[in-house]
Amino acid sequence: MNYHDGTLARADEISTGPSSLTRDEYYQICLRHLKTGELEQAEARCREGLASDANHAGLLHLMAGVSLLNGNYDAALEWAGRALTNEMKATYLATFGTALQGKGLQAEALEAFQRAVALDPVDPSIWENFGNALNRAGHANQASLCFLIARAYQKLPFLAECCSAPRSGWNALTRQFNPHLRSHPGLQEARDPIHCFWSNAPLSEMSRLSLQSMVRQGHPVKLYTYDNIDAMQARVPPGVLVVDAANLVPGAIYQHAVLNSEIRYFSDIFRYAVLHEFGGWWLDTDIVLVKPLDFGREHVFSTQWSGVEDGHVCTGDAMRAPKGSPHMANLYALSLQRLFSEKRVEYGAVGPLLLSEYLLAGDEELQSSILPPTTFNAIDWREVDLFAAEGRAGFDLLSDPRVTGVHLWGKMWAERGLRFDAVPEQSVASYLKKLVLEPNWLTQLAAKYDSDKGAICKGHLAHHYTRIYHELFRSKALEPIRILEIGLCRGRVEGWTQDQVPSLQMWLDYFPNAEVIGADIEDFSWFSHPRVRIHRVDQGDRTMLAELASKENALDIVIDDGSHASVHQHLTLGVLFPSLKPGGFFVIEDLDWQPPEIPSNGAPLVKDVLNAMKVSGSFTSNVMTEAEAKLISDEVDEILLNDSFRELMSRGKLGGLGVLKRKAQ
I need a labelling partner for 123 at 20 to 30 A (CA). Which of 185, 233, 355, 500 fits? Predict the structure, then answer.
């Protein structure tokens, strides 16, 4: 403990003259002496402090600590008892329990520790001392659980902090925990294989959703089973390969585990075996993957918010290991020992409990491979109702950019009487179904709001940009992104009545946690939504664009669907590109259409400039400043040109949609 120099200097005054120290300053000085083993000095200072305040609970407790270290258990009991009389505190109870233990009063000591952990259930030192008392009383398994709980609160401090933080702030508590563990997948990288298990029941709708999400993220997926291979293969989504599990773990072990426990117990054993044999990822078949898996570590493990009291801290719902991993071999061997020799067949014995014991007692390398709950278990198993509820609560918990998979906790649905096939339209579960199972969901949203970004608009062929946007943006779908769309008018030239804002409404549904920003030359202030801001901007006015950039800095996606005049597209790109976050997308729509009423002023077609940049690496513009053009040349990581179906079919034009991706950090 650190002390102010002034306080420590004043400690010297005690032996030379009247003291002006407060009781709390006495306490700090005594505590320092106690921690450095200066017991005589600690006792002397405590007595001086108590001479002025005989009921100072902290000083009384320190005197108990001095007595314990001196082996005087009777005195320790007396001092700790006096401290407790003045203030009921968990640490005082623990000291009292330690003194009782020293006296050989095991039952009384255990009762004191039980009261201590009930009073402060997240203090690692109390759990550690409770474990020591249980060991001395011959309760080895209970002692091991206490030591595990102590390590959990020491190694994973967010588990203690969340007990006193609002639920909405739990994800923030994990931001500094293993910050190197972030998923940063490249667009075309080969993905690790994912291994899963399902047996002894028809494949559920939830599991089909889970498997489909893994395939959609580009991972090879194998589903292991002891059931009929051909029948199972007919039920799984395309892209999933069904494999005979008996080729890896003998069917006799499967039968023994299921007979003596349950299918989840065996699944915990199987995952260690399959990762050791083949390497890659294990995912439970109730995890919906919303991003590809690439954490840059050989081993990756997961955690959950609840269950510390049972030792269920680290979970096997999502794990990565290399082929031949000694850790997977150890865990497989330990799980079989626990099943056959120890006959510990309660749920979690070879899963969360064993995994937590192994990882939290392991070395720093293993512990640096542990993910916070945010990544896969942002919604806890005790909160499964949030998946089936309408409202913002579930979406808010999933808004952290680190959320990579959503664990639905399938077993809990039946226990809560929830039906996955009957969730409300505005629920998280319904949203995930549409995001994963509907390849044209964004196109359906465009049709719902009558946007020409979809396939059909007002009975005519439209641009069908949504087919591109769904693939580009779906990994960000749950994130709290900031998306700006320029150009909100629907049929301004044609004189259509402007009673909707199709694009904004579409983005609000697709990005449930996003801030959606609209800009147009017309006044759209009449459109109101809690997650929407509207600006009135003339695309041809550099000053207005600069004001927009200053107000709405740090954007994830910018979509220019404004006038479509090249001169305006150049100007908008030049002014707003600096506001784009690293890894963000700048989209320019309708590159093949130029409004005849807006002079080009010699501005080259943006499509021509983008095609030239793909060859030369340089962006050229007579509209932008030199610095603006250079920034685009230096910072654009990738250029994508895709077709507008309307322009392709009506005029044979290719490449009507331009996408510039800014380099990631």
Answer: 355
